Description:
The chain is mostly helical. The protein has helices at residues 3-18, 23-36, 43-62, 66-69, 72-98, 109-118, 124-133, 140-162, 172-181, 183-191, 198-217, 222-233, 239-263, 269-277, 281-294, 300-309, 315-326, 332-354, 356-362, 364-369, 396-408, 420-428, 441-446, 463-476, 489-498, 506-525, and strands at residues 382-383, 389-392, 413-417, 433-435, 447-448, 455-458, 481-486, 502-505. The chain has a six-stranded parallel β-sheet with strand order 4-3-2-6-7-8, sandwiched between helices. It has a two-stranded parallel sheet with strand order 1-5.
Amino acid sequence: MGFEVILVAFVFGFAATRLRLPPLVGYLAAGFVLHEFGRTPDTGIEAVADIGILLLLFGIGLKLQPVTLARPVVWLTTATHTLIATTAAATALLLAGELGLPLAVDLDGGQLLLLGFALSFSSTVSAVKTLEDRGESAALAGRVAVGILIVQDILAVGYLGFIADEGPTLWALAIIAGIILLRPLFGWLLSNSGHGELLPLLGLALAAGVGAASFDLVGLKPDLGALLIGAVLAAHPRSGELSDRLLSLKDLLLVGFFVSIGLAGAPPPIAWAIGGGLLILLPFQSLAFLLLITRFRLRSRTALHASIALMTFSEFGLIVVVAAEAAGIIDQVWVSATAIAVALSFVLATVLSRIRHHIYRSASRLLAAIERHPVIPEDSVIDLAAEHVIVLGMGRIGTGAYDEIVARQVLSPVGVERKEEIVLAHRADGRNVVRGDALDRDFWDRIRFPDDLRLVVVALNTHASNMECVRRAREYVPGARVAAIAAYPDEVAELRRAGATIARNLYEEAGQALADDALSFLDEALPQDPAVD
């Protein structure tokens, strides 16, 4: 990839973020502009794009949690929505062809279904980024949305394997079995690769050097090899850390893919018209998600937040269209039209994400009418009417604060933790802990706060998270005192300005406690000096 490509991609990506748009919109625009100046795709750009796609598949494999994907609200919603959305998009294109729209006129049944299938996906990159920015990736709406995205991506990968140029050799089953049998070795490497640069390098080596390369040798789609390697490691305790470390690298390398789409040629006017016209499908796709998710007894608010996060076309759908074009199934112009539709859908999703709470308030009565009751316990109202203290974050610090409050036998606390396994462990130890994501506004909206709530203890693992929780506590329970932790003196000042009644420097307090305990020990262990006459 030439230096000028990197520079132009950065400039347009930066401009997109300043407009509060996903940077991928800027990368596509950068490709179009570079093409106008005579730049064409080269092997360097294509290699970067290929590795980005491999890491995308590897990351999906790392998130394949059978428990989440086995939930009917995930797999049944995805399967039903894919059928509905594929049929709706194919029908819309068919009607456009009947009306004489160029490009759509010549599409046959197979091409219509292919394009409808590609347009049925939602963007994993856009949705995950939106959920993380809103602090809702671990909330129920976020987990449902991510589960749906993963199942959609699996369907897309299945199609990519289906249209592979050559069939697999007889060694294919042996390679698949070998990768699965080598899981202990891969797990050992992951456990012993530390937390530095070796960790993402291991992920890249496994995705490209083991999974993709071995699958390519036996005639299988290399992308599927990266997916399988990720799935083999999904249950490893450090799979989440590996996924997080690869996230920035994957996003960086995917720049090559989006730039290469633009370098293939500036879209003709008809591609812009079709790409813009396809946005009409998005509200119907989102409405279908909303109706399907509420059938599984989730609140309409949860379903609305998930459906808005999913209200995009997908970069994976674009990958499907690119693969179909490479196989000679559809024309290159449809790649450009799909790229425009994907980029414009990101813009629309960004706008809707900002006003989602207003949408809910405006349509709350209508949305309440489509709910099914009783709502599942995981999404029902949390009653804390008997508690005096809420501890947000039940890690080591939160647990210590909880136990100290219990030991004093003055106030009754309740802990809040977002990870189910940690909640269950605390309950097994006799602590009163509920599951919830303190960064998710939905969680705060579900709480029935006691009238005599005295204290909110904020003990999450990042300063930004603690700041957000302090603000939420001040908004929802303004009469309670708020205590929070920080790692640096300036963070203590920020917490106090945000409304924390008490803010403590974690390391300073720990140092004082350590010195106090050590001096106390010395006082007890050393003999007293004899009295001086």
